[in-house]
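Escalation from tier 1.

The customer reports that the assembly of two entities below gives different structure tokens on two consecutive runs. Tier 1 could not reproduce it. I'm attaching the input and our single run for tier 2 to review.
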Amino acid sequence: MQLLRQLQASILRLFLPFIMTSCTYTSSVSQTNVPPQRGHLVEASVKKYIVLGFNFDNDEVLELRHKLSEKCPNSAIRGIMTQDLRTLYFLGFFWARETHAVGYCTGHHTADSGEGRSALGDEDTAKNDLAPLEPEISL
Amino acid sequence: MTLRQVGSGILIALASALTQCTTVRSVSISQLPESAARRSLVTATASSPVIFLIPFNTGYLDEAREDFVGKCHKGAIEGVLSKDETVDYFLSLFMIQRIHLQGYCVDKVADTRTHSKRKG
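Tier 1 run:
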């Protein structure tokens, strides 16, 4: 009986690190045109936890663009890499979906000279931020 | 079971292990530059091995991006194709996550000159 308990404890100790460890996998990646001005890197991410695969919407992804544009309010963001990641916890019963975007705030170092700004004015850029999210070309 | 049968079994297992299946998970292409600017092609690839479902290099996407951007110091990179794929070996017990980035390094000064010539 004692041997059985010891065996159970050993198995638990052996597998506990594997159960508690999280593993991250990539679901999709996209990269837009990279600008010559690459001084200031900005990033934003949205995350959602899903239990037992029950997920009823993906609306958190729509917040990503707003979060990213807040990091660079007066300039354009170019060279954006978007990563859709999935992290599994506890043998995959519980997981997190994370969408991460990183890009270059082009006007950060050249705001005084006006270089690196968007072709659109600030007002137009702000309007453009509210437009529906559309990828440039997606296959 | 004879020695020959065991040998055949090992050979089949090895053949299965060495076979790879490549699956594309996502592809995207950004806006292409003018044909005159499509001269200098830059590429970057990074991968992450996944053994028994455990990934060993989760920062491979950042590595690829830094490598890609580092190959075109002064110009812009346009017409970027990004391909995310997995390579499965031996019933997916061993897998490689791989990202491939490809684009044109465009000299923005030259590009501006082309535009001004057209306008003139």
